[in-house]
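Lab channel / #folding
Pinned by the channel admin:
"Please post every new chain as: sequence first, then the structure tokens as a reply. Keep commentary short and put observations after the output so the thread stays searchable."

First post following the new format, from NK:
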Amino acid sequence: MLRRIIGPIIRRIVGISFIVCLYIASFYPPLQKLIWKWFYDLGATRFSAGVDAFDFLNYGYAPIHSEEERLVLDEQDEIHRLSIQLYHHVATAVPIRDKKVLEVGCGRGGGSAYIMRYLQPKGVVGVDLSRKNIQLCRRRHHMEGLAFQEGDAENLPFDDHQFDVVINVESSHAYPSMEKFLREVYRVLQPGGYFLFADLRDTPMIPLLHEQLRQSKMQLLKEEDITANILKSRDEFTEQAHALISNRMAILGSFTLAFLAAKGSKIYKRFQDGRMKYLCRVLQRPE
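Reply from TO:
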């Protein structure tokens, strides 16, 4: 009885506290980075085994045109189909077979592992600010050519011109300085290398993103709005999202639904009414 009373109170306090902390941190970018790091460290510690050890943290991608070919996956990957389809859509925008690939903001490692297993690059390195995430990645994903390393997107721990492709999926919105990140992408790319980018932005902030990309010295090859695909993905995911909340993620309650952009959540509604967009971009460092 006591648990039923206290549970909803804890859920509301945790959710509101995190949102308030992010709002305050928006006025001091270094603090924002620390809060996100703490949040993902907590997730990697709490949800790291069994049914809770989900390998992806993105909104997924669902085709909206019947002519789009259905992605063929191994049986064990079907549970992650929506998230994998997002990675596939982003990573196949250019040929990456036999290329050296860097994923910045690799999270729990599912995207880097998918790219290595299915798309046959020469090698993949996943980098993430969260040390706990990197430890989790190394425990869960073992294969030749795949490596994980702790690192800051604004100060990447790699030499110049080390990668043919840099991939960044649903991560940059948490970076204090997009400009610093883009300078690092340019630095670590080989001349002629590609930057494959996908992320969400509030609609009024999209012109700023365009200007940041323009000033990056990389050439914009392709731009795409995939908000409709994200919404369809969230429609298909909502039942699974509620199942997660009824399991160990229940402590975060409705905050979890909002974080996962489940149907009916505030983030879902922002996508739905156009206040937020989900964008894909392909850029190339000049030769």
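NK: Strands lie at 100-104, 123-128, 146-150, 163-169, 189-202, 219-225, 276-284.
TO: also worth noting, Confidence is low (pLDDT under 50) at residues 7-11, 48-53, 248-252.
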